Amino acid sequence: MRILPRLSAAVLVFLLGHAARLHPQILPFQLYSLKNGLSSVWITSILQDSRGYLWVTSDEGVSVYDGVRFRNYTVGDGLPVSHVWSIHESRRAPGTMWIGTHGAGVVKMQNGKFTSRRLGARPGANTVSTMYEDERGILWCGTNNGVYQVLADSVRPFLADSSQGWVPFIAPTRDGLIWISTMRGLFRYQPQTGATQPLDLHLGAEIPVCLVEEEAGDLWLATHRGLVCRVRGDRVIAKRQLPVAEVNGMLADGEGGLWITSSSGIVRLAREDFATGALTHYSVANGLPEITVIACLRDRENNLWFGGRTRGLFKLAERHYFTFPFENLRADVMNRAAVVDRRGRLFLLTPEGVWEIWQPHLGNWQTVLHRVDRANLTGRLWQADFGADSTLWIGYNDGGLCGYAIHANGNQPSRLQRTHVLRPGRELPAGFPIAFHIDHENQLWCSLRGTGLAHVDLRGPVRRGFYSIEKGLPEGTIRAIWRDRHDRLWLGGFGNGITIYRVEQDTLRFERKLTKTEGLPDDGIRMIAEHSNGEIWIATRMGGAGIYRDGQIQILSTREGLLSNAVWGFAEDEEGRMWLATSLGMQYYTPAPQRTLHTPQPLSGQYFGSIGVAPGGMIWGVSYNELVVYQNRDRHATSAPPLIYLTNLRVNGKNQTPAPELEFSHDQNLCTIEFNGISFKDEAAVRYRYRLRGLHENWQEPTDQRVVTFASLRPGAYTFEVMALNAEGVASAQPASLTFTIQPPFWQRWWFLTFCAVLLASILYAVHVVRLDRLLAIEKIRSRIALDLHDDIGAGLTHIGLLSQVALHKKSVQRFLAQEAREGNAAAAPEAELQAAALQELAGSLTRVGEVARELSAAMSDVVWSINPKHDSVEALQRRLKAFAGEVCSARNIALQFEVTRQLAGSKLHAEVRRNLLLIAKEALHNTTKYSGSPSVSVKIGANGNQLVVEIADQGRGFDPALAREGNGLHSMRSRAEKLGGTCEILTAPGQGTRIVAQVPYRN
Fold first, then answer.
1. Which of 212, 393, 654, 846 is the most exposed, fewest CB within 10 Å of its CB?
2. Among positive and negative, which fits the CA dihedral 904, 906, 910, 916?
3. pTM listed for this prediction
4. pLDDT: is 984 or 835 the higher one?
5. What Rg do the C-alpha atoms of the chain give, in angstroms?
6. Do 650 and 709 fall into the same domain?
């Protein structure tokens, strides 16, 4: 009969060894309340519309959340009553909302306007708890007094025989049926036939209050008393009673789980082992803001939203992120604050003992405290590590280590049995074991602060050696230890870098030293670890991380995107990614070829001193007062791209009504555009990229600003485009755009420019007509003048010349003169002498009259020729000049060479140009034939660019220009050329002939 006392003592020892204090996992619920802009904390329903906005109903109206602020609609905005139970978006008119009120029927909200409609006169008929609009546009309303159908202006009751009482839900399924739950039972309606079928699922007095359809077609029903049923066809194939008092809602999380809200918190269960699998029950202890949860919703980004009775709206964006609060944790112990065994169970060192933490399959996390057998070792549990034989080794800061065998017990807590003790001063040297490492051969390398490094073969255990400074160990305390696959021992210190030794039996042979000089980011080493690809990762105190590969060191620091240069530890996951614990959060580094850093959003912004991985993609980190667990499995799906909308447009400070294409005047050129991207994953992390096509084509760098202003825009067509980027960097599928045109001022409009062009053309044409008329008139005058000069003055001069010739040839005068010449009688009578002198003088005068008349006739001929419009060409100038040159040259037997560029022959010449060039050439020819004595003369008419060139050259005696007296001929030639804007060059030297070149601008 002594068995009972012994059994009681054993049970007592077991309970003492497993005394557990509640450390529940805490989910990161984010609360939205009155402080955030909600109109009430009593949430009755939640809906996300087709545009992505979140609609929340409460006892104070309707609130719309866009990720930045809540827009509240109450009685003052047009609602007939403040209390709202339900909300539904129209299928036929997206953006139009149906609002179910308490006592005022259903309200239609369209374009900000409210239209209410009462459903009936019976009590409860106008309290609408659920709604659904079918494909025909019929709005089904579930009230506290049955079901009503609303179509256009008609309202009619449905299911008259069961119209009494509350209607929990009206829900469609993929097969086109409509399921209706009432106080009288469950019904199924076929829209094609109009048939209504009552269903008996043998639920007894249970009332189904919510329905969820899974992808395979099965339905999940939950009753008000917590019975969850899986329905296939017309029967229940599985059911389970939940430990809750009253169910309010249910949702599928998209990951195989069902979340049921109730007055007792939230229950999560897995659909795959629904009947017998573990349940996860979340309450206030798990971070839930309140115990009574009414409404629930899963949005397009897989965020879970819940509404309570007294605290408001709360969101769960990270379902795979848990925190476990602990006090007095020591995280900065060379990444040895916790370890994980092969089953995925985590063992955390605390001042009270060893906490075992694990999660049964999809169930609640379990925590159990093990008060381990210390074997008289004292001090704080300092570090832990698993040996190659799965023994859990724990070091104590007063010295010594204990080894524990872990005995598994199914889903129950493990049993820790002490199997080995390494006592200070015996199996281990005395001293504080500040860091230790157990290698792949189950060899313990333990650093004792300020003394050296101990080597123990744990297979014995057998002490193999002790290495101190005197034996070649680097000065200072060794903080980081690692033995790699090539039997090299890496030792890192507080400030002297890394020393590498070759392990050779019981000795260490020095190989090399690594410091900042050799490329280390810092000489303060915190941890050393080896990647599966052979890389050696080095955590430093202030320089970031170093990756030693093939003799080269790659540095990861804040320049490369590291959250902090203070790195505490590493852990490699199943996919080869290396996770880093820093003072500002956890990140992971993808291996080659990507080699990039990534930061999961919930893991940034806090200190982590230890880090590790567990099977199944679980990442854990130890902070000062909590353990963080991040389940990274199935986290590769890209989140939904954020929606983006333009929310406002102001031009010159005035709001503008949006339109497909807007037009503004030229002085309406100050445009302010507001926009908003809807992403509820992490609202504060949403960034925006935009561009204004027509001003700049490139996208601007991401910014958190939701408004942009463009000033002093020039007239033109513009298209503004903006896209949102969520916390994961996913951009909007389509940018929001706005096209507008700034019209130019009227003096730059096409019609004004066209008018001006037509007017200018008309003026120019009128000027042209007037000028043409003047030219024609001048041409007529020139022709008349030429004709008159030729007919009258020319004829008169010619007549004078002829008469003088006739007078000179009068025979009497000739005879008299001849006789006077023969006789030469000096003794003539005085009278005769006087007569002879008079006759002689008369003869001279007549001769001079004839010469002047002939000269005037020639000059008059040139004038008549020059003003005659028939001679306005180079060809006419050629003929005139050639005739004159031939006349003067033949009179003196001078050979003439005349050359004209063929392309100029038909060109037109202005009268002034022709006349002056003719006179210059005649003067030059006259001087050449008179003074040069040249046997030949050449005349050339050509072009030099836009210059007309006339050149007269001879091979005569020439003259010295410096000694030549400036005569009227030379002066007149130069002045005539300069008058035309040209030049006249006289190139000559004694004995070298003369060349006269006249160049004038060509004018027709």
1. 654
2. positive
3. 0.74
4. 984
5. 56
6. yes
